[in-house]
């Protein structure tokens, strides 16, 4: 892997443009736009207050920077330094801001879930949607046909609203009540046909709807403790993975909408066929005069390190907090919060566990390569990045060459050729080269 030098950043606000030509970085109250090929500064601007949100327009021409505390939004054109738009929200406040798919209007979420304001950059007019349930979840866009889907709360009842979302023509297409006491969130299938809605974590309940409000399936468990914690759709929209506080993943298909398999995160791993377990280890190297880290391929059975959640703290570290399908839907990786040092990789076709990765430190983030389906990258808040590249190619550990650089977060570029890595105050980019694939080891 080849690394760039490290650059300063604030709040992990580093964003590749959708066309991959630029990288926008927030540094306190300034935005710096660099070219991704040379990392030379192409454009920069400042606003009066520190930046808390940074977003590219979908067409990669406009950059939005916002401060929620004072309701200030600044939008600049990377191709025209003279073009500028300022938006300042009034007494209702500003909690979130998002681009609309047309790249010529923005969506502003007010405080106290009062309303959403859609501002047109062409006409400078606003369109209002009342009573959104949340400002940071419970909404999404569908591409074809383009529409905006929103969780709403009116008269103590939950609804899903579907809106036509043209630049200057927002219109309510459909609204329907959902059978929940307190809707926690929903997830739209990749093909845009179905919505999975789930209850607040106090109840284990999920409901499947079409966009016209037809209920096509539901599933609930009584007296099972806390409920749903994470949900992920497969890329084909044929499967839904539901992670619960009971440390199980339940897989549903889009025909019967019933569980076809329960994947259990057991603390004792038996001698399962085709399962490989990689465990990170530190070893002193006399030749280098320092400790090195590596992966050991260990034998089964083993006891997985287990952390007991505290009963005195809210949001207990318990249950499957994250589940992610890979690019072609053949694998799913899960993180059970009771076992924060472990990643579980499951074969979707055979519905079995094929890999367990045990880290020395708790896992901070992990992401599938968006193009190469078998490549997973992991960070643990230290100076290393970790790779799993399938059962045959194995694992690899790479040390970031920047001094005192601790990787807390990262993201793949959409073409899968580089990784943006961030510590608390800096970032760097690593480029995946062809020789990387031949250096992996078991």
Automatic annotation (TrEMBL):
<dbReference type="Pfam" id="PF00400">
    <property type="entry name" value="WD40"/>
</dbReference>
<dbReference type="InterPro" id="IPR001680">
    <property type="entry name" value="WD40_rpt"/>
</dbReference>
<dbReference type="InterPro" id="IPR052778">
    <property type="entry name" value="Centrosome-WD_assoc"/>
</dbReference>
<dbReference type="GO" id="GO:1990811">
    <property type="term" value="C:MWP complex"/>
</dbReference>
<protein>
    <submittedName>
        <fullName>12576_t:CDS:1</fullName>
    </submittedName>
</protein>
<dbReference type="GO" id="GO:1990810">
    <property type="term" value="P:microtubule anchoring at mitotic spindle pole body"/>
</dbReference>
<dbReference type="InterPro" id="IPR036322">
    <property type="entry name" value="WD40_repeat_dom_sf"/>
</dbReference>
<dbReference type="GO" id="GO:0005815">
    <property type="term" value="C:microtubule organizing center"/>
</dbReference>
<dbReference type="InterPro" id="IPR015943">
    <property type="entry name" value="WD40/YVTN_repeat-like_dom_sf"/>
</dbReference>
């Amino acid at each position: 892997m080849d690394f760039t030098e490290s650059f300063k950043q604030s709040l992990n606000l580093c964003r590749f443009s959708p066309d991959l030509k630029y990288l926008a970085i927030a540094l306190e109250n300034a935005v710096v736009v660099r070219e991704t090929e040379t990392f030379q500064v192409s454009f920069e601007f400042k606003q009066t207050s520190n930046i808390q949100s940074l977003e590219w327009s979908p067409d990669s021409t406009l950059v939005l920077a916002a401060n929620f505390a004072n309701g200030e939004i600044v939008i600049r054109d990377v191709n025209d330094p003279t073009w500028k738009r300022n938006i300042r929200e009034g007494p209702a406040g500003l909690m979130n801001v998002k681009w609309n798919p047309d790249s010529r209007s923005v969506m502003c979420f007010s405080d106290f879930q009062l309303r959403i304001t859609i501002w047109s950059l062409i006409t400078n007019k606003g369109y209002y949607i009342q009573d959104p349930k949340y400002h940071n979840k419970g909404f999404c866009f569908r591409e074809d046909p383009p529409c905006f889907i929103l969780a709403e709360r009116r008269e103590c009842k939950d609804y899903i609203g579907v809106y036509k979302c043209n630049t200057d023509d927002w219109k309510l297409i459909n609204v329907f009540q959902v059978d929940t006491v307190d809707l926690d969130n929903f997830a739209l299938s990749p093909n845009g046909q179905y919505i999975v809605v789930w209850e607040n974590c106090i109840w284990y309940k999920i409901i499947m709807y079409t966009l016209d409000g037809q209920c096509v399936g539901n599933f609930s468990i009584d007296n099972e403790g806390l409920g749903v914690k994470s949900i992920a759709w497969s890329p084909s929209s044929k499967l839904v993975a539901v992670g619960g506080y009971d440390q199980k993943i339940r897989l549903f298909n889009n025909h019967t909408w019933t569980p076809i398999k329960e994947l259990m995160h057991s603390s004792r791993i038996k001698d399962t066929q085709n399962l490989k377990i990689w465990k990170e280890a530190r070893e002193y190297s006399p030749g280098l005069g320092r400790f090195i880290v590596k992966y050991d391929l260990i034998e089964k059975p083993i006891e997985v390190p287990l952390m007991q959640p505290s009963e005195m703290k809210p949001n207990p570290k318990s249950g499957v907090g994250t589940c992610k399908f890979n690019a072609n839907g053949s694998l799913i990786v899960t993180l059970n919060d009771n076992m924060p040092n472990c990643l579980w990789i499951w074969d979707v076709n055979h519905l079995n566990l094929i890999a367990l990765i045990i880290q020395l430190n708790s896992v901070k983030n992990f992401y599938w390569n968006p193009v190469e389906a078998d490549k997973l990258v992991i960070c643990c808040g230290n100076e290393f990045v970790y790779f799993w590249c399938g059962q045959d190619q194995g694992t690899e550990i790479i040390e970031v060459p920047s001094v005192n650089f601790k990787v807390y977060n990262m993201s793949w570029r959409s073409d899968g050729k580089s990784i943006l890595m961030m510590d608390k105050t800096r970032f760097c980019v690593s480029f995946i080269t062809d020789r990387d694939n031949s250096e992996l080891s078991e």
